[in-house]
Sequence to fold (113 residues):
Amino acid sequence: MPTAPSLAPPAPPALNPDQARALLKALADPIRLQVIEALGGGERCVCELTVALGLAQSKLSFHLKVLKEAGLLADRQCGRWVYYQLQPEALEQLRGWLAQLAASCTAPAEPCC
Fold:
């Protein structure tokens, strides 16, 4: 009897340590974490984010740029408005990297003597 094909999406490519550091650095700022949380419910217009986070548009734009350059956000323009959304692939890659770290962190040390 043939087995049904897996419906799970393919695993995202593994992060190298430099890529993981870049993502973590982008996420290290409290304002950028607030942006990520605000986008957790889906795509939002920059004008909505400005109001929801209580930030000046110039300050928000800086943080959005950092997150986009790190690969955590995608954007699209519609007229004069820009809409942002999370890049789930980047989050999955970071999750996978952290899972590998968690799986290997309990290994005992090699004896020194």
Q: What stands out?
A: The beta strands are 44-45, 73-78, 81-86.
